[in-house]
Fold:
Amino acid sequence: MEFLQDILAAIGVVLNGIPQGLLALVYGFASVPTALGFAIGAVACGALNSVAPISFQAETIVMAGSMGKNRRERLSMVMFGGLIMVVLGLTGALSAITGFAGDAIVHAMMAGVGFVLVKTAFGMVKENQLVGWVSVASAVVIYLIAEFLDPSNALVYTIVGSLVISSVTAKCAKQKLGENVIQEKMCRLKLEKPTVNLSVVRGALSLACLTIGANIAFGNITSNMGGGNLNVDHLTVYSGIADAVSSLFGGGPVEAIISATGAAPHAVLSGVIMMAVMALILFFGLLPKIGKFVPSQSIAGFLFILGAFVTIPSDGAAAFATAEAGGSIIAAVTMSVTAVFDPFFGMLAGIALKIFIGLTGITL
Structure:
């Protein structure tokens, strides 16, 4: 019976990951190479007994997709960002950075990313107003009902429900779907030559800053579901390696997520099963086939909910609740700069203001 619960939890997270995988396809990330990232995650979690699995994460996908001017730049950002995280994890520098930055800056940065998600959602609505608005409206209704009936699975119901409803709407409206979806062959892996320029460096640093916050926030939430212990450095290393390897062959980023497998009777096993199933789906090229029936704008509702209903309220409240000197203004500046520019500049602005307040004693 407990094994069945492990399986059900894994399937729920898979259902949550597939639509976000479709989002990755929109930005040009290939699905088959991403299977390598999931395989690395499965092996690492099993070997290290880690309860924090990795999967498609909307925040990172949107950030890389919006900051990269083309596919090559996006892949390079993910790869270099992953390598930065590997170094931070191996040296233990992650804890030092977050300890120096403080909760106000880390949570404010995540809240700023929430605004980016909302902006991306409405950008999709503009691309296809029928599908976009149906996705957003259905997502809001489903999320509010699910939050009342089953809060722990509200996001799963939201993403699956809004995706299905908006896809059926597109079909009924006789919209052509999947015209831009590139079908991939199983086992087809090709090395992608990375590029280096200012945009890539900025993007890699931004992804690293975002991942720092996500690893701590999402990793701890998942581990606390079942009272498990989380080694953030371990999570940082294997998620970084997964990103670097996946992107080197053209695949998308795979990061820490809030995973229902953390509440399963055997959290580690459930997480490994989830990643193994996702790896198989991607390895056999099934994700692009699903994309032929699902409009890319169907993810708009989930992005809106994730940003406006989940990330901004929770991380924003945590950021402004800090008791440190000038905490509120530091949080406000970090969140605003992140929303307008990117997480790297947001964290940089927050740290600079924190140092200024510390040196001058001005609390604003």
User: Anything to note?
Assistant: The chain has a mean pLDDT of 86. The longest strand covers residues 54-55.
